[in-house]
């Protein structure tokens, strides 16, 4: 909701810079000390007036999402949208005469003159439009054009067509920032990354699927992640805000997908039953990958030898998962949720081929390798929420995870005069627990405060049973305190967020203790309803994972040792970004630029030792990245589809190396015609770099053409042709000292092989669903030695 508020003065240097840049004049000040000594802000009062009220229908039911506008001298002066209780507030209004306009789809618009010379609070009753047919004349209020800027992102509203689509993923296609595939039930950002999904600001697992799009009040896309979620590594957040729900309801969905010829197949079942007091949600899924074939070519060279080979790759994978979530509305102010989640995975990878090994003499050889991995994750969580009032909330989440990962590998190379055999076996286990406490408070519709803490403990045990080496133990205790504050001053919206993280860990014989800060600052200036500019800064840290710390060799190659480094420290990243947003008449255009500085980067590092290349990790100094580009999204009229495209130019500056440049491109088009949906997407980046290697993407990393046919709103079939531009292929070159290598991989089955999907959904009384959604999720990905 857009409102004019008191102008503020910021102590933080970056916020001062934003204010100066935007020429914001600061008047009176009163100081408020916020948590963790990270913020000092002022708030001031001017002798101006407020205009507020409640908008209802003729039955006195509140109307959310009503557009309220005040104009002066034929120019828009202030605008707002009503909240779920039908309320709106406009502040900092000078004395004068205004034109008031109130509009809401399906109701008669209201226009009148208003003289503001005191604080006004009133009630408006809107009448439903009469069903009168006017020849060749239609007036439509397009909610898709209503975009509300926030300090950290944008707030979008779905059209009536999207709300009545029956599928939340189909409805989310209207949001210009998102790339949505309803058949695969995937939601990505334009750059291909996956956002952290929240429901009403709460973390969820697969919470989008059971939602009836009629329940969605607004869709918030957050670009500047606050301190609470900085630790997750999320670049963006997707927050779906739902209407309030009550009484009995049922939800059921099933789907199955198969490649032609058979390669990947999956089946899934969702259900949810309950009423305003209790609810039970469940999901079961199975996924099989059968004979996923590829090809590889390798060359390795160092002092005294040259080795090359070519061969075939084959992967087989089986995965199953199940989960249950019980939700209980104890009182109107107290909620409880209990969650259990299990996942099992069995993967087998095989290679075979021929090669040549040149030293003082040349020898041909034949090789085979086999790797098996059996992994399991079992996690349970308990969530409690107490609402002190409508805008004050306390949340507590307690979780425990138990994971296992058994990995075996073998490689055989047959030479004319000898045999090389390498076998390894790992048995890995992880136990972890976490406790999160979070308090949030919103007031005056523009101010928000969020404080909390997160405590995590991890105990890893890595046993290389194939060798007589000590068991590697990794234990880590993590304590994180954070706070965020957001408000607005005139047309400037701002957010300041900070956290302090203390980590105590022991990796084998190495011990580390460190305290690291996290922060995010953002300022958004709204020039008008079509133009806005944002400047934001983020400071975050990334701790090494257990695979990067493991000191034992995980390679079966006779000329390569791959192992981690127990002495690694967290890497730190500073990111400064500026962007401008323009939206009008279906267009959504966003040019942007960012500058990233990373220190103590955890990157591959290699060296030769007695003719063997040792591949490990080190904190290798600095990386600076400059990125410039933008995106364009056009939504066709009447909800007939959308077209989008974007490009980004990246320059990486590694210490002591020349700049490394790369380009990423993406685009897509989706058309809706009656019961049909036609569309496709393409994503490609030419190069990715580390200090010692370069990966070249020979074909797009993702390309797919797809057709959906909806038999009914709840039952459809989808047919797609993935990788239609060409089979997924990459080449990797590595150079470190005298050692260099080349690897070419072509995934022959990741090519133009079609797949078919069927999905059926059943909903009954979904609008009566309990308010508490899937607030608990498994954050545990399990222990893995994969780099």
Essential attributes:
single chain, 787 residues, mainly beta, Immunoglobulin-like, Ferric Hydroxamate Uptake Protein, Chain A, domain 1, Maltoporin, Chain A, 22-stranded antiparallel barrel, 6-stranded mixed sheet, 5 helices, disordered N terminus
Could you explain the architecture of this structure?
The protein is mainly β. The radius of gyration is 29 Å and the shape is globular. It has three domains: 13-104 and 106-125, Immunoglobulin-like; 143-242, Beta Complex (Ferric Hydroxamate Uptake Protein, Chain A, domain 1), CATH 2.170.130; 294-755, Maltoporin, Chain A, CATH 2.40.170. A hairpin with a 2-residue loop joins strand 32 (571-584) and strand 33.
Shape: globular
CATH architecture of the largest domain: Beta Barrel
- Overall pLDDT level: 83
Number of strands: 46
Which percent range describes the beta-strand content? Answer: over 45%
Q: What's the story with the biggest beta sheet? A: 22 strands, antiparallel, barrel
Percent in helix: under 10%
**Straight-line distance between termini:** 45 Å
Low-confidence stretches: 1-47, 130-141, 770-776
Question: Number of helical runs?
Answer: 5
- The computed structural class is mainly beta
Radius of gyration: 29 Å
Write down the CATH topology of the largest domain: Maltoporin, Chain A
CATH class of the largest domain: Mainly Beta
CATH superfamily of the largest domain: TonB-dependent receptor, beta-barrel domain
């Amino acid at each position: 909701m857009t409102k004019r508020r008191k102008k503020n003065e910021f102590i933080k240097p970056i916020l001062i810079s934003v204010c100066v840049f935007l020429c914001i004049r600061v008047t009176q000040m009163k100081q408020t000390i916020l948590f963790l000594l990270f913020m000092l802000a002022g708030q001031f009062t001017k002798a101006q007036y407020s205009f507020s009220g409640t908008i209802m229908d003729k039955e006195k039911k509140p109307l959310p999402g009503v557009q309220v506008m005040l104009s002066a001298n034929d120019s828009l002066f202030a605008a707002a949208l009503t909240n779920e209780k039908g309320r709106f507030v406009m502040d900092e209004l000078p004395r004068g005469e205004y034109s008031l306009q109130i509009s809401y789809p399906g109701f008669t618009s209201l226009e009148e003159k208003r003289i503001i010379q005191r604080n006004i609070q009133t009630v408006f009753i809107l009448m439903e439009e009469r069903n009168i047919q006017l020849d060749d004349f239609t007036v439509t209020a397009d909610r898709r054009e209503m975009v509300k800027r926030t300090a950290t992102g944008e707030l979008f509203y779905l059209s009536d067509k999207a709300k009545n689509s029956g599928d939340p993923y189909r409805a989310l296609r209207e949001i210009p920032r998102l790339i949505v595939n309803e058949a695969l039930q995937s939601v990505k950002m334009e750059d291909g990354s996956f956002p952290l999904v929240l429901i009403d600001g709460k973390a969820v697992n697969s919470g989008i699927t059971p939602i009836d799009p009629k329940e969605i009040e607004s869709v918030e896309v957050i670009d500047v992640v606050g301190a609470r979620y900085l630790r997750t590594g999320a670049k963006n957040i997707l927050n779906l805000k739902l209407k309030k729900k009550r009484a009995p309801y049922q939800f059921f969905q099933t789907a199955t997908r198969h490649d032609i010829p058979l390669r990947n197949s999956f089946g899934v079942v969702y259900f949810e039953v309950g009423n305003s007091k209790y609810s039970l949600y469940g999901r079961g899924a199975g996924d099989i990958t059968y004979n996923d074939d590829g090809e590889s070519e390798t060359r390795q060279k160092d002092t005294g030898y040259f080795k090359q080979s070519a061969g075939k790759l084959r992967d087989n994978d089986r995965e199953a998962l199940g989960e249950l979530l019980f939700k209980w509305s104890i009182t109107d102010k107290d909620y409880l949720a209990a969650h259990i989640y299990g996942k099992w995975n069995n993967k087998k990878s095989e290679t075979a081929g021929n090669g040549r090994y040149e030293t003082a003499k040349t020898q041909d050889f034949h090789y085979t390798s086999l790797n098996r991995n059996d992994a399991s994750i079992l996690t349970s969580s308990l969530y409690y929420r107490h609402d002190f009032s409508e805008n004050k909330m306390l949340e507590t989440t307690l979780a425990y995870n138990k994971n296992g990962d058994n990995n075996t590998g073998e490689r055989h190379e047959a030479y004319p005069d000898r045999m090389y055999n390498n076998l390894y076996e790992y048995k890995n286990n992880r136990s972890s627990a976490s406790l999160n406490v979070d308090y949030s408070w919103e007031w005056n519709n523009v101010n928000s405060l969020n404080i909390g803490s997160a405590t995590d403990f991890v105990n890893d045990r890595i046993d290389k049973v194939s060798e007589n080496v000590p068991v590697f133990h990794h234990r880590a205790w993590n304590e994180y305190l954070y706070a965020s504050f957001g408000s607005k001053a005139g047309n400037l919206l701002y957010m300041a967020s900070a956290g302090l993280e203390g980590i105590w860990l022991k990796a084998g014989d190495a011990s580390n203790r460190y305290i690291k800060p996290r922060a995010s600052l953002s300022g958004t200036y709204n020039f008008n309803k079509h133009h806005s500019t944002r400047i934001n800064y983020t400071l975050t840290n990334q701790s090494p994972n257990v695979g990067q710390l493991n000191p034992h060799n995980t390679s079966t190659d006779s000329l390569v040792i791959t192992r981690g480094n127990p002495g690694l420290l967290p890497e730190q990243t500073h990111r400064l970004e500026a962007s401008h947003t323009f939206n009008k008449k279906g267009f959504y255009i966003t040019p942007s630029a960012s500058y990233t500085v990373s220190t103590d980067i955890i990157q591959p590092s290699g060296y030769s030792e007695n003719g063997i290349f040792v591949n490990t990790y080190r904190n290798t100094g600095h990386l600076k990245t400059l990125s410039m580009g933008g995106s364009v999204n056009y939504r066709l009229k009447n909800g007939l589809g959308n077209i989008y495209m974007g490009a980004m130019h990246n320059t990486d500056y590694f210490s002591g190396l020349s700049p490394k440049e790369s380009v990423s491109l993406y685009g897509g088009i989706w058309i809706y015609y009656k019961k049909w949906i036609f569309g496709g997407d393409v994503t490609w980046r030419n190069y990715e770099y580390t200090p010692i290697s370069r990966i070249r993407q020979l074909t797009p990393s993702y390309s797919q053409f797809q057709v959906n046919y909806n038999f009914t709103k709840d039952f459809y079939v989808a047919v797609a042709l993935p990788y239609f531009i060409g089979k997924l292929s990459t080449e990797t070159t590595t150079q470190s000292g005298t050692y260099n290598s080349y690897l070419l991989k072509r995934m022959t089955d990741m090519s133009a092989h079609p797949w078919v999907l069927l999905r059926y959904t059943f909903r009954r009384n979904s609008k009566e669903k309990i308010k508490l959604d899937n607030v608990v999720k498994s954050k545990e990905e399990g222990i893995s030695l994969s780099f």
